[in-house]
Amino acid sequence: MKKTIKILLILVVLAALVTGGLYFGYNYKQGKKVVKVAPLSNMGTDSYWGDDIQSFGQVTADKSQMGYLPTKAEVLSVNVKEGDHVDEGDVILSVKKETQDINNKKLQIAKATHDLSVEQLKLDRLMKTEPAPDYVYWQDVYADYEYVEAIEYKASGSITLGNENYQDGDTVAEEIFDIHGDSLGFSYLVYSCDASGARRKDESGKDIYETKSADESTVSEIKSKASNGDLTAKERKTTQNYLRSTTYFDYDTGKLVGETSYDIDGKVTTEKKPPDGMKADELNAAIADAQDSIKKQDLEIRKLQYELETMENTTDTGDVVAKVSGTVSKVQDINNYNTSQPFFVVTATDEYYISGSIGEFYLDQLKIGDTVSISCWDNGATAEAKVISISDTPATDGGNFWSEGNSNSSNYEFKASFDKNSGIEIGSAVDISITPSGQEEKGIYIPVYLIRKDSGGSYVMRMNDSNRLEKVYVKVGKTVWGYQTQVKSGLTMDDYLAFPYGDGAIEGVQCEQVEYLEDDGGLG
Q1: In a designed cystine with 376, which of 17, 342, 424, 457 is the match (CB 3.0 to 4.6 A)?
Q2: 3-class secondary structure for 27-70?
Q3: Distances (CA, A) of 391 to 398, 412, 427
Q4: Tens of pLDDT along 131-190?
Q5: Backbone Cα Rg of the chain
Q6: What positions belong to coiled-coil segments (predicted)?
Q7: Is 142 exposed, middle or buried (CB count within 10 Å of its CB: 0-12, 13-18, 19+)?
Q8: Is CATH 3.90.79.10 correct for 33-48+441-524?
Q9: What is the pLDDT of residues 341-391, one digit of tens each?
Q10: Class assignment of domain 53-129+283-434?
Q11: Strands 53-61 and 401-403
Q12: Neighbours of 92 (CB within 10 A)
């Protein structure tokens, strides 16, 4: 009894030594690893001003008249100069009536309107296009597939199969299956016996037998005995490891961008290829070009409509008359004028305004009295404009508005007034920038690939005060620009983070501070 206790104590001590050795060996290996960490201030931002909302428009006034001259118009005389007061009906200038083709001008407007609709469709397609990743990495995913590889038939008592005798519990036969469950055939066991009928044994004391393929009559007999209870069937299962899928990820964002799935035979069952086309910067440039084309085309239509209005306001003798009483705030030189700008402007008020549009998603966030920023195309002059009205019905032409991710929203027109002394004239084209109230968000925005999830929630791998890596759970918000996720709590801009994969996912690893994580995530 004492000897037994002594042996048990020795075994316990040895087990403790082995376990301790493994533990300290593991910790030693972990202590030798080094992972790179970079300051969050170099990878994230703590400011974000909502979605990029842009509109455009043209400066006008409630009581004003802009006179555009067609390219081929022949001016005979100009009867006013800047600063003059005119009354409604006064002749401002005279043109050669024969040089004005009203029907052709209407055709130009129709063609320009069609071209604008084409450009708007092009922009809509671009806004819905998923950019191709700059870099794609792939990962094979394996899985275990369990299936029945055989059914064993054991004797329930002493039985006879053909000319062979079997004892209770003997394995008598088995049916083999492939991975799809299709039968590969039956076999049965023939035990080796000596002259006395006793079974021969191998060195380990097990019965010696050989396996023979079962013919149809033997298979029929096996099934019959299984059905009447002479044989007991038992499934034998196995697992097959196979390539289940190949997944493709955007290296910069960690987003899944493609996946190919396979069946157990390696045949493709489903396939989503990674986006192949314009990269994000190329797509953004194409969207900017399309938006610029729409702005120019829209303003071209307005100019053509003003030209038509001037034509229709011309008398049979070629006189262009004032439609409002007011002051001539602009008139161009008859010998050197720019047809892309009004030839003359008459204003009856000091209040200038611009018209823009805002999407329905932001309609409740733009209020009368709010300010928007405007920038003049002609001279770069800027001004703050105060919103004086917002339409309660959608713009029939879609409006001059876009915002990333909201290309299909209905848009509503608004008007905003600004100081006439800002250097932006009536008739000028302007860009309008809108920051809806409530869009400034609190928090830190960090690259999405620095965040992982487990059953406890979203977490990052951060360097602690001991220069060791630790897992820190964070509260996340929305993802913006496609690659930055808002962290509402759990981090500060002074923290250092690691790429949370490989060694960067192991708590306790020693940290090496670097300015930036390289393309490999700082894993070396």
Answers
A1: 424
A2: HHHHHHCEEEEEEHHHCCECCCCCCCEEEEEEEEECCEEEECCC
A3: 13, 6, 22
A4: 787 788 888 888 999 999 999 999 999 999 988 999 999 999 999 999 999 999 999 999
A5: 41
A6: 280-314
A7: exposed
A8: no
A9: 899 999 887 788 888 888 776 777 788 988 888 888 878 888 899 999 998
A10: mainly beta
A11: antiparallel
A12: 24
- Residue 477 neighbours by CB under 8 Å, 6+ apart: 441, 443, 485, 486, 487, 488
Question: Tokens 């600063």 — which residue?
Answer: 83
CB proximity list for 289: less than 8 A, separation 6 or greater: none
Looking only at Cα atoms, what is the longest distance across the chain?
139
Contact present, 310 and 68 (Cβ < 8 Å) = yes
Beta bridge partners of 201: 207
Q: How far apart are CA 196 and CA 141, in angstroms?
A: 58
* CA torsion through residues 274, 279, 280, 284, sign: negative
For residues 328 and 426, what is the distance between their CA atoms, to the nearest angstrom?
Answer: 11
DSSP state of 368: T
Residue carrying structure tokens 């040895």: 14
pLDDT at position 428 is 84
Q: Which has the higher per-residue pLDDT, 517 or 111?
A: 111
Distance CA(328)–CA(82), nearest Å, equals 5
What single letter denotes the amino acid at residue 296?
Answer: K
- DSSP E strands, 214-291: 231-250, 256-262, 268-272
CB distance 475 to 489 below 8 Å: yes
The CB density around residue 266, as the number of other CB atoms within 10 Å, is 8
For residue 141, what are its two tokens?
């995913």
What does the alpha-carbon distance between residue 521 and residue 449 come to, in Å, rounded to a whole number? 9
Rounded to whole angstroms, how far apart are CA atoms 417 and 108?
31
DSSP state of 275: P
For helices 102-128 and 280-312, the axis angle rounded to 10 degrees is 160
- Distance (Å, rounded) from C-alpha 163 to C-alpha 153? 17
Q: What DSSP letter does each residue of 278-302 carry, written as one string?
A: -BHHHHHHHHHHHHHHHHHHHHHHH
d(CA 120, CA 447): 32
Domain residue spans of the chain: 1-29, 33-48+441-524, 53-129+283-434, 144-240
pTM of the model: 0.49
Q: How far apart are CA 149 and CA 185, in angstroms?
A: 11
Give residue 510's Cα distance to chain centre: 34
CA distance 13 to 7: 10
Q: Please list, in sequence order, all residues whose beta carbon lies within 8 angstroms of the beta carbon of residue 399, skipping any fewer than 6 positions away.
A: 55, 356, 357, 358, 411, 412, 413
- Residue 289's Cβ-count burial label (10 Å; 0-12, 13-18, 19+) is middle
- The set of residues, in sequence order, having a beta carbon less than 8 Å from that of 49 and lying 6+ positions away, is 435, 439, 440
Find the range with the poorest average confidence among 85-99, 206-220, 408-422, 436-450.
436-450
CA distance 136 to 274: 8
